[in-house]
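Run log // design_07
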């Protein structure tokens, strides 16, 4: 029996209908059937993709042959996480109009990616954004720093997704939390280890189509109730919500200007520094397709956030008519379950089953993308640079990638279990802060600032990374909410305004202070790099840097 067949048998046995039916489950049989169908479909795709994944280019970049529309949909799939779908709908349900701050914040980063990042990134890079950052700078220190920033971002993002997955599946299907986390960990490890980027891409495509279809159907069913009039929807929401007209005004979620600006900076610049998103620009054949990818992704993501806004306001009105969804005045399962409860309220058990399966697919797809980005940082940026000392050996690098994927999968499962009862919302914020403070400044300045040197990038990037981690740790979300202290050492929840500024200032100061011969050579190499980044001349030869 092959390893694929053994895994199929194991998963069928683990997720078999009778076993699930014996548990106390919120989801109907249709949800469990859709769950099993999705798992079988994606396993089949992984087996198909594994036969086409022979080289590092196949593993990291799906062979570089993905089209712009496909890649745009896959990027949207990577970006539209369960936190976006369940979290933003829940925030709108809880606070009304203010939930839109998060939706807009997640969206406004995309014009930056479109205008400043996508095309130069594809022209300069090969598999990871570290390829771009180290193009004219010293390989070893830059790759170590870039890989560190990527791994910190990926691990904190993974913890949040794994805990969210465990809690969601526990609530929906009645499984034990640990079993749910292990199933997600096994599946994501299998997708990435055997199917690489090709399997991950197809999982993202299927998930994105399912999520957009399900959310569209829910929004239509909501708007039907109000004659497709937003005025009627908002008027009814104000009548039934405990906060009354306050839900139509800003200020209920983010009270002070510094927190609002800082949150906006983290979401906006963090998007352009997320390693699993940046990797997707290397799956297309040229810069034109990279630009098209962002164009389509922005459209899909923008449309999706409009839907979550409608779903959130629809939940305010329509769930109020279902007292069976509440216990002691609170929504059972918390406000993050508002979209799931609404699906049952407007579409019955069939729609609940479909949306539940979509939520599971969403989590599974995002953790697969994150795991691939993390394993690439280890094998391509660290292993190939430090152990192989830059010598190309595809067989060894592929083996290292797969080992790194398995190790990351085990770490994700263990951390998911350890952090089960912790508030993990801060980890998503930290992931965006780290990406915005460490990855984005180095990436942007390496492409557009002639004076950048290795010393400036390493010192400034390290300062941004450390500042983001330390300020989040001593801020209200960790120091008070997670550790139970009375008062936070650092008063703001979102430190991005400080950590991003420190990173840029650090890079600027230490680059200008560097008058070494190496720095002058790095600055002199800027013109050739800039021409290639803007025109693509030489990019077809593949960057063996």
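design_07 sequence
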């Amino acid at each position: 029996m092959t390893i694929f067949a053994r895994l199929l048998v194991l998963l069928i046995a683990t997720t078999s209908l009778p076993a699930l039916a014996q548990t106390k489950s919120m989801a109907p049989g249709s949800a469990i059937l859709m769950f099993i169908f999705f798992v079988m479909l994606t396993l089949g795709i992984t087996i198909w993709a594994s036969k086409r994944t022979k080289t590092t280019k196949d593993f990291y970049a799906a062979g570089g042959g993905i089209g712009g529309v496909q890649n745009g949909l896959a990027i949207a799939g990577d970006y539209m996480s369960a936190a976006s779908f369940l979290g933003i709908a829940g925030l709108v349900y809880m606070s009304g109009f203010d939930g839109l701050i998060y939706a807009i914040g997640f969206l406004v980063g995309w014009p930056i990616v479109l205008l400043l990042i996508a095309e130069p990134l594809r022209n300069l890079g090969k598999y990871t954004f570290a390829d771009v950052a180290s193009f004219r700078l010293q390989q070893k220190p830059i790759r170590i720093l870039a890989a560190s920033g990527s791994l910190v971002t990926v691990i904190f993002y993974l913890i949040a997704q794994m805990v969210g997955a465990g809690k969601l599946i526990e609530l929906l299907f009645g499984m034990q939390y640990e079993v749910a986390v292990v199933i997600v960990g096994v599946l994501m490890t299998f997708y990435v280890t055997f199917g690489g980027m090709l399997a991950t891409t197809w999982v993202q495509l299927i998930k994105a189509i399912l999520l957009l279809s399900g959310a569209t159907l829910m929004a239509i069913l909501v708007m039907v109730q109000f004659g497709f009039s937003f005025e009627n929807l908002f008027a009814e929401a104000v009548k039934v919500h405990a906060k009354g007209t306050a839900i139509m005004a800003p200020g209920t979620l983010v009270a002070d200007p510094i927190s609002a600006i800082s949150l906006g900076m983290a979401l906006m610049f963090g998007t352009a520094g997320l390693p699993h998103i940046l990797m997707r620009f290397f799956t297309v054949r040229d810069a034109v397709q990279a630009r098209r990818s962002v164009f389509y992704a922005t459209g899909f993501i923008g449309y999706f956030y409009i839907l979550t806004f409608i779903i959130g306001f629809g939940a305010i009105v329509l769930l109020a008519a279902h007292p069976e969804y509440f216990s002691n005045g609170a929504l059972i399962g918390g406000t993050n379950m508002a979209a799931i409860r609404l699906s049952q309220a407007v579409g019955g058990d069939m729609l609940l089953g479909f949306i539940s399966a979509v939520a599971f697919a969403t989590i599974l797809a995002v953790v697969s993308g994150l795991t691939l980005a993390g394993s690439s940082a280890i094998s391509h940026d660290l292993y190939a640079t430090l152990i192989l000392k830059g010598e190309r050996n595809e067989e060894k690098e592929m083996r290292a990638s797969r080992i790194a994927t398995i190790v990351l999968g085990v770490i994700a499962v263990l951390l998911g279990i350890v952090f089960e009862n912790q508030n993990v919302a801060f980890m998503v914020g930290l992931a965006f802060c780290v990406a915005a403070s460490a990855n984005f400044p180095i990436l942007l300045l390496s492409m557009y600032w002639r004076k950048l040197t290795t010393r400036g990038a390493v010192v400034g990037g390290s300062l941004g990374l450390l500042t983001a981690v330390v300020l989040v740790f001593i801020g209200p979300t960790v120091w008070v909410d997670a550790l139970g202290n009375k008062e936070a050492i650092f008063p703001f929840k979102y430190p991005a305004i400080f950590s991003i500024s420190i990173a840029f200032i650090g890079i600027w100061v230490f680059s200008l202070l560097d008058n070494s011969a190496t720095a002058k050579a790095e600055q002199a190499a800027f013109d050739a790099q800039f021409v290639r980044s803007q025109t693509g001349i030489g990019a077809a030869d593949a960057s063996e840097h």
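The first helix runs from residue 3 to 14.
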